């Protein structure tokens, strides 16, 4: 039987490159899967149910909340978004690792329901560097950049609610660090009690 | 300034290949150092003070015990062996990682004095495989092999006092897992509070 997979939760201030790291992880690491969110918003052109999102009705979403079927959820401009617990649990049971890229509020909901997850906070090498990156994107007004950078200090304090902090200086190095974290977590004693027991019984392990 | 290094403590039932893994780690990983033990036993031909051991007198060793200058120590057939705290702490402060290959009793002494260490328990893939390996060495009587295997079950239960368990099926894979553990531990939030604070202050980090 496959070893259970690991749920990896990535958060960090916006502009730190979480999305790029996620893509790198999915490219480099065949065993890792991206969690598909459920949402009540309408599919956009080209979006496919079960690929981009699970598209559900408001009533279905409310039912999921009521049945504790979501690891986390949030309402954004009247639409609901959430992480279906069953989909995640099935993949984990089949030995797949899953990465969730969500904000701190969502991450803390997951941590409550799934404390065996691995919580990683991505930070920029410096606030100056973050400012440079956001400026380069060119998609924001100076006002909104200023506001966003002002909140970064506050956001950074939530790093302490995570298990690991990874500085995204170079994407390849940050991704390698996350791969090392996943490997190390698979060796945690708490995740290997069954193996230790199996060896003690003189059975060989899988 | 260099980031502080990490103290890695390796234990496991004898015959699991801890020594081979240690050598591989020291070969592959230039930043890792082997801790040099202090001992009261006489140097053998070719042994050099500060290379193989720190050779000290009984009085000096007792003084070290009294001054809490040893991370762990034990008496074996009238000779004392121990790990000098200062040597370890100096290397760590200079950013070097250190590996200690010691038995469970010694490891638990270190854990008390140095809880920020990383404690890894190496296990064989199965007790059958361990028996095969010990038989291959050819250095033990069938009686002593039987006695040793009988105690392995008991020894394996101490795995739960460690942070990680690594199955030594292939040495190269086991060593890679330990390298991943070292890398991951360097990303632990508790080891990076100063960095998070530095980024918050808008200073860039080292």
Largest sheet: spatial strand order of chain A: 2-7-1-8-9
CATH architecture of chain A: 3-Layer(aba) Sandwich
The CATH superfamily label of chain A reads: P-loop containing nucleotide triphosphate hydrolases
| Tally of domains of chain A | 1
Main sheet properties of chain A: 5 strands, parallel
Q: N-to-C SSE series of chain A?
A: EHEEEHEEHEHEHHEHH
Q: Per CATH, what is the topology of chain A?
A: Rossmann fold
CATH class of chain A: Alpha Beta
Number of helical segments of chain A?
A: 8
Gyration radius over CA of chain A: 19 Å
Q: Could you tell me the strand content of chain A as a percent range? A: 15-25%
Number of strands of chain A: 9
- Uncertain runs of chain A are none
Give the quaternary arrangement of the chains. Answer: homodimer
| Average pLDDT reading of chain A | 91
Label the structural class of chain A: alpha/beta
């Amino acid at each position: 039987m496959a070893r259970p997979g690991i749920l990896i939760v990535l958060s960090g201030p916006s502009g730190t490159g979480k999305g790029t790291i996620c893509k790198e992880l999915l490219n480099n690491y065949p065993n890792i899967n991206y969690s598909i969110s459920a949402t009540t918003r309408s599919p956009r052109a080209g979006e496919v149910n079960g690929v981009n999102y699970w598209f559900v009705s408001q009533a279905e979403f409310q039912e999921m909340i009521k049945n504790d079927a979501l690891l986390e959820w949030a309402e954004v401009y009247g639409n609901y978004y959430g992480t279906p617990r069953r989909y995640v649990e099935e993949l984990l049971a089949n030995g797949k690792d899953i990465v969730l890229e969500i904000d701190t509020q969502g991450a803390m909901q997951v941590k409550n329901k799934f404390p065996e997850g691995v919580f990683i906070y991505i930070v920029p090498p410096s606030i100056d560097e973050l400012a440079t990156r956001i400026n380069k994107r060119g998609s924001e007004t100076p006002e909104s950049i200023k506001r966003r950078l002002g909140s970064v200090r506050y956001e950074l304090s939530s790093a302490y609610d995570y298990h690991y902090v990874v500085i995204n200086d170079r994407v390849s190095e940050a991704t390698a660090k996350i791969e090392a974290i996943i490997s190390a977590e698979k060796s945690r004693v708490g995740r290997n009690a069954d193996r230790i027991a199996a060896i003690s019984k003189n059975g060989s392990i899988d």
